[in-house]
Give the backbone structure.
Amino acid sequence: MAARFDDTPDFADVAVAHWQRERPDLDLRAMGTLARFARLHLVGGRHVDAVFAAHGLDRGEFDVLAGLRRTGTPYQLSPSHLADILLITRAGMTKRIDRLERRGLVARRTAPGDRRGLLVGLTPDGLAVIDAAVTDHARNESTLLDLLTEDEAQAFDAILRKLLAGLADRAAAPPS
């Protein structure tokens, strides 16, 4: 289902118009677009967080369980590898694992052949929780993007990929 769209000014148009009046010397072309993107992140995030909460999870806990689940059987990784793929600190990962372990959703195990090595893996309860949560999460995300036509969704994805790749390239470039 395509969303209703018209040319009625929205919150971003109003803010940009105010800035244009106050600071006509500035290039404000990006301001409205990025304000809408920030609002999308906030509003969409609320929808996503509600699904996680319905399964007794917060976003970080979901990420850990999902990171383990999508690796395939035996659904286990070292905590440091898991932290790397989720782009969080080792300390942050330890806190998440501790919370999930207390709830019986993950278990720490000694790595085979390395008594000092540690693996964290899904328990049967953890597997059940993440499978239910990811089913609802995928449905929810599809519903959010159903507001766009298929062509719009593909174009939006392509634009986001291009923007993120360009920003990564800028971050990696030496300062000039």
User: Anything to note?
Assistant: DSSP finds seven helices and three strands in the chain.
